[in-house]
Amino acid sequence: MSDLPAEKTLLPLQTSAILFDLDDTLHHRSKAFYGWASDFAQRYHDPAKKAEVTAMVRYLVELDNHGYRPREEYFTDVKRKYPAVEGSIEQLIEGYQRDVIDHIILEDEIMLLLQQLRARQIPFGIVTNGVGYQQKRKIKRLGIDAYTDCIFVSKEFGKQKPDPAIFLAAARCLQKPTQEILFVGDNPEFDIWGAHQVGMKTVWVHHEPRQWPEQISPEVADLTVHTFADLLPVLGLQSEKDEENTAVSQG
């Protein structure tokens, strides 16, 4: 894919390509997990006992630790806390991986972002930690595989973020030097510091109430956004409302 002269004016920090994290960057992983946790909790409680359901959902979400708790440990603790939960650890993991997909949606802002990147011939890809088949099921569910085939999943690749190897492999896939790539992600260590150490520019997607870790210099995040919608103007792209206003003014 060749660059058009106009491309270089669209992206900040003199970059010409983008790499994205997946969970809580290209989709609301936290929303999807909450939806799964709500369904799961309701299996084991009388719907009329809302306080008990709410307490279990809160426990399931906190224990998850934004997806960084290993699933074996996670469901071992869930069964210890709630003995009524049925099935082996393996069966619970399989059920979770199957059912959570139903709660994943592609936000309008992300769909517009991907469409505009493709329309402007800006190359982009995905670098995500996780199990290959599970992450690719999410990508397929979101329809992102229709926009790029530059997709790197840690378990499949053999290295996980923040290991430099997975970032460098993605840069080769995009056929761009690392200093021309903008990495967008929500995890300060795996995404932002990992990309920074190989020379990429970075955008931190800051979801409250997560905080920046003290052991990492905040300077490794070149830019910070707080919502998916914020990505559009930061990347020099238009929101749907802006596009409508532009069309009206041109008409």
Automatic annotation (TrEMBL):
InterPro entries: HAD-like_hydrolase, HAD-like_sf, HAD-SF_hydro_IA, HAD_2, HAD_sf. The keyword Transmembrane helix does not apply. Its cofactor is Mg(2+). It comes from the Bacteria. GO terms for molecular function: metal ion binding; phosphatase activity. NCBIfam families: HAD-SF-IA-v1, HAD-SF-IA-v3. This is Haloacid dehalogenase. The keyword Ligase does not apply.
